[in-house]
Structures are given as structure tokens and as C-alpha cells.
Amino acid sequence: MKTIAPMQAERLFTPFLDAVDGTLCLPASATFADIHEQAAAHRLRFPLIIDAAATLREQVAAATHAPASSRFGPYCDNFLGINWRLPSGRLARIGERVVKTTTGYDWLRFLLHSGRRFGEPVDYVLRLRPDCGFHLEARLDGDITALRNCVRRLLHSGWMHWWDAVDFLAEGAAFSVRVAIHCPPDEAPIFAAQLSGIASETHTRLTLRDNPPPSFDGLPDVVVKTTPDRAIGLTCELARDAARCVALCYSGVVHVHLNVGEDVAERAHTLMQPHLGELHALGGDWHSRWLPATPPTVTESQWIETLEKAIHGS
Amino acid sequence: MTKSALSTQLKRLLPRGRVLDSPAQLAGYASDALGYKSYQPDAVVIPADAEELVGFMKGARQLGVPVILRGAGTSLSGGPVAAQGGVIVHTSGLKRIREINVDGFWCEVECGVGLNDLDAELKPHGVFYPPDPSSGPVCTLGGNVASNAGGAHCFRYGVTSNYVLGVEAILLDGSVHRFGGPAGGRGPWREDWKRFMIGSEGTLGAFTRFWLRLLPLPEKVWTFRATYPDLRSIEAAIHALVAHSSYPAAIELLDPRGVAMVESSQMAVGLPKGSFMLLTEIDGPAALVNARVEPVAQALRQAGSSDVVFSDEDAMRQKLWKARKAAGGLLGQLSPDYVVQDAVIPKSALAQVLQLVYDEADAAGIRAVNIFHAGDGNLHPNFLFDSRVPGDLEKVELISERLMRRVIEVGGTLSGEHGIGNDKSAYMPLVFGPDSMRLQWAVAAAFNPTHQLNPLKVFGDRRFAV
């Protein structure tokens, strides 16, 4: 086979919307309104928004998952490509515009949540999903045991695939469960009946709202990644010293929102210190958008140095 | 080092495992499922367990030969073969399912566990691991993670990288590292190193075990089969399904040449001559999925099919899948050799890329059959040839190169689920510009700077030099 000459320039992404594939390329500074404006015209949506005003870059820096990750996976499964600005100022294309790839090493998932240590995102390629036209939001209230049972019922059946989100909400000692559903209007009664049955079985009180206006939890101050079975317990503990917490139950993620005016850095460290051992043993982690990244271990310093040489050499 | 000296050293490194060095034993490891290219390894080792694999990796640097990790050898890209000679490490000894945690939706498995064996163990717990490459009955999870395997149901469920929470890997210095774990985060590391490990095709480290994410089993599945007279109508059907609110799990396609191949075999199922066959599945709770059956059937009919057949009964569903599943096996009966490509394209370019496959193959006198994951835009054109016929392989390589150039022009990529191996490494300069290529090489430089692990793969000039 003859040798193919190397390319002289990067194949960068240019802004596009592919309505057939459901993919959208737009600047990292785009917000929910920018995405919605383009996607909605094609009956598409990007469900992983946690803050209406924040840019995509800020959302990705703040969190790895959104409530709808329960159904669609973390950000890294829904961001297909990036135009990445290297420290030299040049742009490199990372990832693809198609929905699956195993071409080369996966820099996309590595860089997406790496902060600005290796450069910064300029444009993103997003995977959109069909907009079915109807939202249903359920709130389930009850005591903590009832709510735990309720979450277990919601997740441990084939229905789990079809909830956009199953979130456990905690404000101090007040707890509730929020379920988001996105479906065609004619399927809404089927979902409502299922939720009603679960509420009845688990002795929780159900409140349903049809097509509520979009509401978002906002950017979390601290994000914790654990296993799904530990998320509610951890949320209850963390909520004692936070303004509110949201557990993304299937993802095993806890979003912690601290009280306004607190010294976030100190509070975050104090909150997380007792949990570090267990988190690391489970392969979990935590981070805060307000804090610098954990210092690298001695072993990974060498790997990072090699990557940085390549990045800075560009 | 002579082969005899190598064997002696290997036996010291693996006192409990096996060392294979006779020509008859080595012949079984000379190729992967790609078949037409073969490379005799100098030896094959089968570590008894992870501990022995660690011992082998610690001693590997002193051996001074390439080291190639191999699961079941079902790769379709020339991945787990000794392209530069050396020792193949067969991981069949590491086959324990160590834990299934239903409440946490994860399991911990060793790299040699068979994919379908895992599914059989998971089923009674009401959970499943979604990636489903067609080699499921024989392939191992180690191979799946190394090549970021996909399968027919990726359209909704995604590929292997969507489900790997953690990887334990042994690097060439014998150090053992856990990247992630049941929680799927970074663990104590600053960076998320497992991202590089998944899909690294045996070039960064030897995997011993994984933590995998699980999902609840769907309660009910409906399978639909429809045929279409032309490319325009099959495209309309694909477009309707990918936007459908039922979120199909699979959207599979067999082109008219594939249909003809099935219909002229003993696996014939009565598909109309000259038609495209589309197969799709929806799954979920019965109350929900049953309400979606007629809307899906209607969408298939509206796109131009007059023979939409569907069922939720297992026996009938197997019949509907029969042509799709038989097609892969029939290729081997039609031709001594075949190359299967794995490009992924934006679906809007489907017609023009398929036409290119037909035009190029017909002009060269090479038979081409397309069986692929239409929902993902993941093409699998199979080029049938006879490597004993002078010039045939060169024709196929030329067609493949032209195909890959077009794939990249339309915004696609070389591989969706098979990996690059040594079969597609020549095309990598079509994908990566100078800066992104430098980043790609940096990953190998960080973990395997001498390219002792699986040389000549992914990037063809990754050559091991002692």
C-alpha cells in the first residue's frame, strides 16, 4: 500500500447543524438559548443543560453530568468533537462529528474535563436528541426511607431507560425526589400511570406538572462522583452543611450548592475531607469549579510532562 | 535471542502458565478474524492469572521482543497479531467475574471473560451490559475494551467506552495501576487516564480487569423487518427512525448485494430480489413499548416499504434477524478472503458513499457486500477477494483508500468499532493534522515509548527497536 502524505493543516470543525445526524457545532461560549434556537427548528434538543445563563464551556468546567445524564450519559458521551486552542494559540481538531469513533487515542474524553491545563475549547460538536414535544415533571415527597424505596423502584426496572432524570433533592433535612420525563404527548398518561403506581407502592406523595417552564439547578459549587447506591446517603450527609444538594441517582453524582458568602475553597475541603478515602477506593472523585485541580501524583507527573511537551511543541 | 532461549526465559517468567512454541501451536495465533494477513509469533504465553501476567510484564523489557496482548483474536483490523514478531500474551487465564453489584449498577470482571458469558451471568440479576459486537459468543471483554467495540444496538445504547467505569492496567515496567473503579471517576489521579486506555488496541498496557456500568434489562423487545426497493426510500426510513420518539435500539441494513447473497444460500428467508433490508428494534416496559409498535410500523411504511413484518415473540424475532446474522458467516463461504471496512459517515452522505463502493468495486471486478449499522452511519462494506490471485489484494487496497478519502471528505472517520490495527493505520494521515497527530503520538510516548507493546498498530510507523 502506498504511503499517504501527512496533512499540512488541521481539519477544523466549522459551525454546522446536521439535522439528520442530530449534531450541532457551535462556539464554546454558546448558552442554552443559542442551542435551543438552532435545535428546536429541527425538533431536536440538547438535554444536558444545568444552567440557562452559563456558557457550555462553564457548564463542562463545573460538572461532568447533568440530570438528563441518567438517560443520555455524561457530557463526554454527548460531546463528539472540539476545536481546541493549544497553548501556542494554534487550533487542533479533537474528536469527530459522527456519533461513534475508535480512530486513535481518545483525547476528547481526556481533555473535556481537564480544565485549562492543556489549552481550552473554542467550539464544540454536540449530539442532539429528538424533541418529542412534551415534558412531564414529577415530585415525590415522603420520609427518607420511602424516598429511598421510591428511587430504587424508579431505577431497578426497564422504565429506568425512559426517565430523563431521577434526582434526589436535599435542602437541609428536607428531601424529595424529582423525575423528569420527555415524551410525545400521547405517551404522557402512560408515564403518569406508572409514576402513580410507584408513589402508591412506596408511600410517597406524587405531584405532576405538564410542560413546566424550563428550570435548571444552576452550576454546582462542588461535584462528587460515587456509585449510584451511595449517592443518596452521601447527599444527606453533605446537605447538612450546604445550601442544597442534588443527587443524580443513576449517575452516582452529587451536585453540592454552598451557601452564598461562604469561603467556597475552605468549605469544599472541609466538606469533602471525611469522604476522600472511600471515594478514592471506589474510583470516585470530587472537584470544584472554584478550586485548582488536585496536584498530580508522582507517577502521573511523568505522563503529564510527556503530554505537555507535545502540546507545547505544537 | 534464539527462539529456544526465548522459550526458556518465558518458562521462567510463567512457572504456572503455559508457553507455546511449536509451529502447530503458533499457527493458531498467526492472524485475527481478518484472516488474509498472517504473522507467525515467536511464542505465545498464557499467564495463569493476573499475578503471573504482572511477573511477565516486569520481565518483558529484558526479553527485548514485541509483546502483543490477545483475547479471543476476533479483531477485524489486524490488531492482536505479531506484525513485528514477538510474544503474544493470550489472556484466557483471566476469566473471573469478580463481582456483580446490582444496587450500584456495576460489575468487576477480568479481561478474559467472554462477552456472552458475562451477559448470561448478569441476566438473572435483571441487568445487562449493552455493547454487543457480533463476535459476542467468543470475544472477550479485554478485546472489547482494547478496540472500543460496538455492535448492533449501539444506536441507542452506545459503545464500550460509554460503559467502562475503570481499568486496571499493567505498564511495561510492571507497575499496576487502577484508573477509575466502580464509581467511574478519576480516583486519586489528577487526570482521567482511563480515557486513553479504552480503545488503545493493546499499545499502552496490559489490561487485567475492568469495572463496567450496567443497565436494567428491558422488559419487552419488538423487532421490525422491512424491505425497500431503492436507496432513496431506505434513506427515508433511516432518517425517520433516527428522529423517532421511540428511540430505536438498533437500525441495521443489508444492501441488495447482501440480500442476494442470503437469498441464494440455504439461509434464504424470502426477501425480495434487489431490495434493501432494514431491521430495527424498540425496547422498554411493555406498557410503553406496545404503544409504540404501530407508530414505528407506520413510519417504516410511509418511507416506502410494502412488507413491514414485526413481532415480540422470541422465535419470530430470531427469524427476522436471521438474514442479518447469517450474512457475516456467508461471506466466508463466498470468498476465500475478505476485507471489511468500518468507516462512520454523516448519514446524509450515505447514498454517495455507498455509490462509490459499488462503482469502485464493480470497476475493479471485486465483489462488495454492505451489511451495516445504519443508525450510527457505521458502514461495513465487505470486499470479497482471493489473496492467491495476483493483484486482487492491491485492487481492494486501492478501493479502500479511495473509500477512506471520500469518508474523510464528507466528515466521517476511519473506524467506528473495529479499531485501526494494522489494517487501517496507513489512512491515519487522512484524519489527523500536524498538531492533532503530535498529540496522538504523545500518548504512546507517555506509556509505551519504545513501542514494545503491539508495534506497527494504530500508527504504522510505531516500530519497536531494541
Secondary structure topology:
The complex is a heterodimer of chains A (314) and B (466).
Chain A: E1 16-18, E2 23-27, H1 32-40, E3 44-45, H2 56-62, H3 69-72, E4 79-85, E5 91-95, H4 107-112, E6 120-127, E7 129-130, E8 134-141, H5 144-155, E9 165-171, E10 174-183, H6 188-202, E11 205-210, E12 222-225, H7 228-239, E13 244-248, E14 253-257, H8 264-272, H9 276-281, E15 285-288, H10 298-312
Antiparallel strand pairs in A: 1-2, 2-6, 3-7, 4-5, 4-6, 8-10, 8-11, 9-10, 9-13, 12-14, 12-15, 13-14
Chain B: H1 3-13, E1 18-20, H2 23-27, E2 43-46, H3 50-63, E3 67-70, E4 87-90, E5 97-101, E6 106-110, H4 115-122, E7 127-128, H5 141-147, H6 154-157, E8 164-170, E9 176-180, H7 194-197, E10 206-213, E11 215-216, E12 220-228, H8 231-242, E13 250-254, H9 256-263, E14 276-284, H10 286-302, E15 309-311, H11 314-334, E16 337-340, H12 350-364, E17 367-373, E18 381-385, H13 392-409, H14 428-431, H15 434-447
Parallel strand pairs in B: 2-4, 3-4
Antiparallel strand pairs in B: 1-2, 5-6, 6-10, 7-11, 8-9, 8-10, 12-14, 12-15, 13-14, 13-17, 16-18, 17-18
